[in-house]
Design a protein that fits this description.
Blueprint (H helix, E strand, L loop, with lengths): L4 E5 L20 H14 L3 E3 L20 H11 L4 E7 L5 H14 L4 E6 L4 H6 L7 H20 L4 E4 L4 E5 L12 E5 L3 H10 L2 E3 L5 H19 L4 E10 L3 H14 L3 H15 L6 H14 L3 E5 L1 H13 L4 E5 L3 H18 L13
Helix pairs in contact: 1-12, 2-3, 3-5, 5-6, 6-7, 9-10, 11-12
Bound molecules: flavin mononucleotide.
The site of flavin mononucleotide has 20 residues, from strand 3 and helix 6.
């Protein structure tokens, strides 16, 4: 297994993860999804990870207004690819556990054991309300998510019919066949960073997908979730971070490119809409104007992933620092995914291999 695993993040939503009116963003059509997934697959990228999104954030770009539903998208891409792990990202309020368990197993079979389930508790009240359910308070949302996951795991593992008698779900004579190909069940990722989010990951997930305002924060989060998993549940959990790549031949060119995409063409209105919903739902008040400005820029660069702006060597240095903080995977986004994947193959992977972060690819991989 590579010391640094990679995923392509957000190729199912319009503009991907970059809140900008720049050219080359994700358009959301099937030919594009297949092309990008196959390209990542040929490069040996480990995972293809969608964003779960039910409505956009307005602004000039109408950011993320067009989206592919992630389970059906994953099923199609599972058939279109060979090696790469295909994830569905699902907000728990949008799908009943009995259906989710069955969909996961079906895609696990289509992909011959390459399916991954990324669970999100759901922070976006306007989206939750589209399903007719009220947004639960933050801590209770995770109690619901915990029960949702327990129910699914029983459906994946148990052969005899069982009744489920939970606080949120009550169901009789539950049974699901066939079982997943991955034993005991498909790889589970969970995206969330609060204490409750970490506890969910520590208890249920193979990978905790996190955001952090700095590498120091990331290092502390990684240490916390890993020790919680070991101490409280006797488990190991990997941690993956998120990076928005702005890479050019030189650092100066990369900074100019970042400035153009984010400062000249960035969609502040959409980013502010997103940040405001997020702040309201997470109960965090961002009053300091300088802090708000930084949050907005990072939001615009790549859904609050680390903006990684630099030459290929500098980008690889930063990714190596993420690994040094204890992260074993990084999800990538770019303002232009086709160009980003080409650059990954030509410039970044050879350097990551030379640094011992990834094993060299076979000769028939992309040049
Ligand atoms: C890295 C990362 C990726 C996320 N991706 C999504 C997503 O695709 N769709 C979504 O609705 N929420 C997404 N979320 C939101 C989380 O599911 C969660 O609701 C939010 O982070 C609040 O939980 P927390 O306080 O535990 O972080 C993501 C969160 C993180 C940290």
């Amino acid at each position: 297994m590579n010391r640094l695993q990679l995923a392509v993040f957000g190729a199912n939503v319009s503009h991907g993860c970059t809140i900008s009116c720049s050219n080359g963003g994700i358009e959301v059509n099937w030919a594009e999804s297949v092309r990008l997934a196959r390209h990542a697959d040929r490069l040996g990228v480990e995972a293809f990870l969608p964003v779960c999104r039910w409505q956009g954030f307005g602004g000039l770009s109408d950011f993320n207004a067009r989206t592919f539903e992630t389970w059906t998208w994953a099923a199609g891409l599972a058939q279109a690819t060979q090696q790469i792990r295909i994830f569905a990202t699902t907000s728990v309020a949008s799908v009943h556990p009995v259906l989710a368990a069955k969909q996961a197993v079906t895609i696990d079979h289509i992909s011959n054991g390459r399916f991954g389930l990324n669970v999100v508790a759901g922070w976006n009240a306007p989206e939750v309300e589209m399903f007719g359910s009220p947004q639960l308070p933050h801590e209770e949302r995770y109690a619901y998510t915990d029960e949702w996951m327990q129910f699914i795991k029983r459906l994946w593992r148990e052969s005899h019919p069982f009744d489920f008698d939970g606080r949120y779900f009550k169901a009789q004579r539950c049974r699901a066949e066939p079982k997943p190909l991955q034993i005991p069940y498909p790889l589970v990722m969970s995206a969330g960073v609060s204490t409750a989010g970490r506890r969910f990951a520590a208890r249920h997930a193979d990978i905790n997908f996190i955001l952090a305002p700095s590498l120091e924060h990331a290092r502390a989060t990684v240490a916390d979730v890993k020790s919680m998993a070991r101490r409280d549940y006797g488990r190991n959990v990997a941690v993956w971070g998120n990076a928005a790549i702005f890479c050019r031949n030189t650092s100066g060119e990369a900074r100019d490119w970042y400035h153009h995409v984010i400062h000249d063409l960035g969609d502040l209105e959409a980013a502010a809409n997103l940040l405001d919903i997020f702040a309201r739902e997470s109960g965090s008040q961002i009053d300091d104007p300088a802090l708000r400005e930084r949050y907005l820029r990072n939001m615009m660069a790549g859904y609050s992933g680390f903006p990684v702006v630099g030459s290929p060597d500098e980008v690889v240095d930063f990714l190596a620092e993420m690994v040094a903080c204890g992260m074993s995977g990084v999800t990538l986004s770019w303002p232009d995914y086709d160009a980003g994947l080409a650059q990954l193959g030509q410039e970044l992977l050879p350097r990551l291999e030379a640094r011992g972060l990834r094993t060299p690819r076979s000769p028939h991989s992309d040049p």
